[in-house]
């Protein structure tokens, strides 16, 4: 029988009880918590997290021993100098059954926080809480949390993803096999081994609880720890006992215990309803785009995108206390995104699972999330409502506090001027009343200037809202700044010496072999300078094939491809980031600056390249000192863009460019593309990006893109671009008169049929 996972490898608990960290791989996550001693015991699972005084530090390497942790965490320093502090004295609160959207700029610690939650590195999270996580690494090569067995089929891998059920099944199988032998001592050995493993797990939890408590609770916890040590020693002795030394009554008692335990486990597994679980797994896989015949394929034969879908299915099929989804829409087409939206919305009514979600897809967050959690300035704040409501409230708060600060600054300037005049006049004439008046007004300036509202939004009252002596009675008025990602700007397109279409496709037909299905069937497309063309469709419909034909990577089976004689083309493919990662691994010392210095072949000097990278959001030392292998996914997208725009192309072809971006960066990208004077051909399942860049529509709920140039700008300047959204289906390319909305509505109908038949 496989032993229980008692303590995840690499976990360390310090003797003072406030530090738990992961040492499984660099970098190391170190989490501390102020109120750990008051939390529930680890054997009590919870769908709610409420942790105050949370600090999360990421260090470059793990301490050599537990003693190092003890030494570095004593006193107030708490080893803060040992690494980068991402979260400081924050309140982490996720209420049971609520769906949260987690926001924060790249580098604020979203993924680190999610991993710390999943690994239960945060002391306030009970060990028994079941957490299912889908999280991608920076390299986008594998997902932490959802582990697939490469040798199993897709369906088998999804069904075996629930570790609690797997553990029960393993114990039941182990006990069942012990009764199949002719040796009457096998059931005795089996039940004793199970008892020993349970004692080991209980000792780990007892040690953890004893480390996290002090005072009377700590005394009781240490007593329980001692009892757990004694029990483990007793089970160890029983397990090592020779068969000849075991009394007959012990054999009978242990055999009976093995029978009862097996019956209990079998009953527990029956209650889990494996048949229903399989049916649910099939529904989820179909919703995520798998065909029935693909269920029997081995996971090892799947491409990276389909493997990610399988991982997502393995998380959705579970019924955990907390479900964490980090960019679940990556590698999904729009049908999969719409299905996942509706599936997660259904969970609100059918499940008590708490969901924490990170996504770059604005429409997806708005549809799924009931509340927003924001990581900003190393704190976690909360807003009740979806992303659109949060942004409206943010703008209202910015306007309100900005006006309050301006009014108060004017009042303060007037009062300080009055104070100076009274002080000058009082000293000149010896008028004590003037001097007292000046001191009284100075006291008001010192003590009563600041935030004029209470925490509840009402008028600030000193005796109610700030009881006791304080050096400064009121907080300074801080006007919130826009939560934008680093801005982006694109160079203007090179001028054409003579007019004409940039690219023209005439009656294009494409099939890989004459006996294969037709992928593109009589496709026609003309793109002129300034045009905005969006192409949408399900995975496998032929979108990328169309781009390969257009860029000359493959020749059409029939038809004609024509390009402008002076055309400069910039092509961002689905694999641009992966190509950069391969380059980074091949040359570990290569930076963004050195890469472009090589690729531009002297056409740009170092200053021009630095300027280009800075306009993409890769400024200073990030461009020149950080190796490409160490750049995040979002930074690699910016570098990939710089590689294709340095030559000032007239046509940008972008294939699923949002995969590695957060939604702040997607907003910056949309704004940059909106003002590009060349032509854009975009393939994306991000509805916000297609609506804004291709259709030119400003999101009415989104106020962070003031520099956006769309239909309103064209009307004001009396200019007009050609804006078209096409859908490829069964080889045919059809223009959508109502754009993204028309395609989305057709998919919603399909999803409703899928969910209603489930």
TrEMBL record:
Residues 69-402, 503-755 form the ABC transporter domain. GO terms for cellular component: membrane. SUPFAM superfamilies: P-loop containing nucleoside triphosphate hydrolases. Residues 429-448 are annotated as: Disordered. It is a multi-pass membrane protein. PROSITE patterns: ABC_TRANSPORTER_1, ABC_TRANSPORTER_2. SMART domains: AAA. It is found in: Membrane. InterPro entries: AAA+_ATPase, ABC_tran_Xtn, ABC_transporter-like_ATP-bd, ABC_transporter-like_CS, ABCF, P-loop_NTPase. Residues 225-275 form a coiled coil. Its main location: membrane. Keywords: ATP-binding, Coiled coil, Nucleotide-binding, Repeat. Pfam families: ABC_tran, ABC_tran_Xtn. CDD domains: ABCF_EF-3. GO terms for molecular function: ATP binding; ATP hydrolysis activity. This is ABC transporter domain-containing protein. The lineage of its organism: Eukaryota, Fungi, Dikarya, Ascomycota, Pezizomycotina.
